[in-house]
């Protein structure tokens, strides 16, 4: 993509309304614009990142055997009344009425709707287990939306729901998601730590939230340092096998947010040199809630003995749009964003230091064509802006690699390659520079 054709409204000054790093950088990098309090329009740069995150989430969900569906944003209140949750959910639920005076709502979550789909479609234990997910917009009317997409009212979420015959089956489904979440966040360059959690309005008796460490995190985190060193991908994985040993390893060491923290236990279980006290951002949450919804909604299957039983259920959420902000909070410097390659909007930023110069233009056009031909996403700065502005923009938007082409390098037959992660710069031939950014 040529920058002269790409819609990327850069801000040179820090927006006054932005309180945290991710909000500030997303506005400055032209990723989002606020439409209303806690509601954002996603511009091309931001949407590309969010799409890359969603693709990783989708691939890891599919690997577990979960199947994708798509449920609507607007739901009938009847199902929520039937489950008993309509009045309990509180003012965060946006309640509306259609033209026929029927009560409706903008879905904050989908337990009722997916249970209704299941109860009308599955009747026998032979059709179990099932796990259905979708990636869809949600709305929760936060009383004080803040921190940009980190605490907005409208957000994109992956939520999925498991259905099993009994508790043991439900636990196997829960373990699949536990492990899948570790792998999902690792692919995004994040170190996510699972912590026991309250179930909140979702309900349930088994729950973990996944937090990434960041100075601006909303939660205080206490954990064993070894958890930060664990590698989610260190062993071959078979989702049809027994995943309990993996879950046990990750839950064997102390990890808690301030809501669940036990200071005496922390000091007793964790050696002083292994204690970590930090801030964390929640990026995922998994719940097992048994028959909380299947009983009142009548989601029953015929068991092996011929008796009808309510299915065991779980739900599993990842904040896709929230992750865009979370990754920035965990990966930035004073100059701007530092995108992990797996989610970056473009892999390479190609900088022409003297657009309009025949020799520079020719080298850039050749590099641009070869990068695209190799399937590498590239943003080509073909503008006539001064060099300092070009460098500042590329550092701000945080693409993993920068290829810098200028008159001196063209004369010498070289290109400068900069790695955004650590600022390393090397001067290479054009061919070797291509090889470097292709990995």
Describe this structure in words.
The chain has 439 residues and is α+β, with helices and mostly antiparallel strands. 32% of the residues lie in helices and 28% in strands. The strands form 6 sheets. Strands 3, 7, 8, 9, 10, 11, 12, 13 and 16 form a 9-stranded mixed beta sheet that branches. Strand 19 (348-352), helix 11 and strand 20 form a beta-alpha-beta unit. The chain is globular and about 80 Å long. The two termini are 20 Å apart. The model has no long low-confidence stretch (mean pLDDT 95).
List keywords for this structure.
439 residues; alpha+beta; 9-stranded mixed sheet; 5-stranded mixed sheet; 23 strands; globular
* Helix-strand makeup class: alpha+beta
Note the total helix count.
Answer: 14
Helix content: 25-40%
Query: What overall geometry do the principal axes of the alpha carbons give?
Result: globular
Number of strands: 23
The largest pleated sheet is described as: 9 strands, mixed
Strand content: 25-35%
Low-pLDDT residue intervals, each spanning 5 or more residues: none
Radius of gyration from CA coordinates: 24 Å
Mean pLDDT: 95
Spatial gap, N to C terminus: 20 Å
